[in-house]
Structures are given as C-alpha cells and as structure tokens.
Design goal:
Elements lengths: L1 E6 L2 E3 L5 E9 L1 E12 L6 E7 L4 E3 L7 E6 L4 E6 L8 E13 L2 E8 L3 E5 L2
C-alpha cells in the first residue's frame, strides 16, 4: 500500500560524501516517522537515523556529527546526507516509513521498507 523508492547509493572513497533519497508513495494519510537503517554483511540491521513528523531526529552514535537526516514532507521524501564516510559505513541502506494509510473510509497503520541501496566506502 505504501511503496518506498531509494536512490543515491554507490562507491565512494573514505572521507567522501553521498546523499541518499527515499520517496514514499501510495494511499498515504500521514507519515509519523521516516528513517534509515543499514545492514553490513554478517551483521544485524541497525538504525542509522530517524526523524518524526514533528522534526525530532535521532542518530546512531557512530554517525553523529557526520550524517544528517532531513525530510520534504510535501513530497513524502526523506534524505540522508552522509559526510566523512568511513569504510565501516559500508552496508546496504534501507529506508523505513511508518504512519497511516486511508483507503475509502478505512484507515490503518503501516510500516514499509525500501528495497535497499548499496553504499561502499573504499579506496
């Protein structure tokens, strides 16, 4: 019911920057939170950053001061600006959104995930 399409991953050298984007579409009534998670090979998926509809953001300690999450609420889009990238940031990055959809008179909660985008930090 809600689709998330990510873009912006790729290969970058240590110290470089990338910007990820994720656009949500579908029968969206409201989005309460949007965020980014990542999963490196052999590791569990972990929260990178998330932001509420009110603008409150939280970050993993490992990315504080280097990554910035932002949104364009009118476009149901979330961004992740990643600076000073390190090899340990290498992972598949997944967009997540949670909120409510409305189809005709029925409203219900949703949580959706994007397909993932690869970020590789290597010299």
């Amino acid at each position: 019911q809600v689709q998330l399409v990510e873009s912006g991953g790729g290969l970058v050298q240590p110290g470089g920057s990338l910007r990820l984007s994720c656009a949500a579409s579908g029968s969206i009534f409201a989005i309460n939170t949007m965020g980014w998670y990542r999963q490196a090979p052999g590791k569990q998926r972990e929260l990178v950053a998330a932001v509420t509809s009110g603008g409150t953001a939280n970050y993993a300690d490992s990315v504080k001061g280097r990554f910035t999450i932002s949104t364009n609420n009118a476009k149901n889009t979330v961004y992740l600006q990643m600076n000073s990238l390190k090899p340990e940031d290498t992972a598949v990055y997944y967009c997540n959104a949670a909120g409510a959809v409305q189809i005709l008179a029925i409203r219900k909660d949703f949580t959706s995930w994007g397909q993932g985008t690869q970020v590789t930090v290597s010299a």
